[in-house]
Amino acid sequence: MIYDITPPITDALAVWPGDTPMSREVLCDMATGAPITLSTLRSTVHLGAHADGPNHYAHPAAGIGERRLEHYLGPCVLIDADVPRGGRVGVEHLRLPPRGSGLVVQPRVLIRTGTFPDPRSWNADFAGLEPALVDWLAGQRVITVGIDTPSVDLQDSKDLPAHTAIARHDMAILEGLALSGVPAGVYELIALPLRLMGFDASPVRAVLRTLD
């Protein structure tokens, strides 16, 4: 089974306040007699489900096009977090399986907070990640962390402590994932960014595939 965890890309999709929303310019349209349909896309690269490039939050650092693809392809685990809106997810908020029930953490971890429920309607009080959680995940050999909010840090954060911790451990970031309705558990993650050399992010078509 495949779960599509990418919000639909339309002009109704909310973007970070002040960033560039998605717009489409149709240059040629078969509906009006043109031989082909041809479009131009204008948008922030931090659109919907997206992968941050290290140069978005660290300098000097690589762009998203220079990132290793294994960050975005391979086994992952989807974990729920019981965290209030406006809070930061700590290890204590994760609904981890009991010890002895099997492998708890995969190299890629997706965290569902439920604090940004509608990608078409912006709410500023979404949850972020505790830097201590990032350190803990790094200690579990996690290489990628994903979240169902627009950022791993809170909207009003200026020092970006979660981004800073992720940069320190050279982990990768996936943000804006649509995780509602997907059972928690272990999957194969496929969320490849475009090879946008030097760019600070790329939209991804993120899917989870069951391993059975």
Description:
With 212 residues, the protein is mostly beta strands. The protein has one domain (2-8, 45-209): Glucose Oxidase, domain 1 (3-Layer(bba) Sandwich), CATH 3.50.30.50. It has two helices and 13 strands, in the order ββββββββαβαββββ. It has helices at 131-139, 161-168, and strands spanning 2-4, 23-28, 38-42, 50-52, 73-80, 88-89, 108-112, 128-129, 144-147, 172-175, 185-190, 201-203, 207-209. The strands form three sheets. It has a nine-stranded mixed beta sheet with strand order 1-13-11-5-7-9-10-4-12, with no helix packed on it. The chain has a two-stranded antiparallel sheet with strand order 2-3. Strand 9 (144-147), helix 2 (161-168) and strand 10 (172-175) form a beta-alpha-beta unit. Helix 1 packs parallel to helix 2 (161-168). It is globular and about 65 Å long. The mean pLDDT is 96.
Q: What is the beta-strand fraction? A: 25-35%
Structural class: mainly beta
The tally of strands reads 13
Low-confidence regions: none
Number of helices: 2
Distance between the termini: 9 Å
CATH architecture descriptor: 3-Layer(bba) Sandwich
Instruction: Give the SSE order as H and E letters.
Output: EEEEEEEEHEHEEEE
Query: What count of domains describes the coordinates?
Result: 1
Give a quick account of the main beta sheet: strands, pairing sense, barrel closure.
9 strands, mixed
Give the oligomeric state: single chain
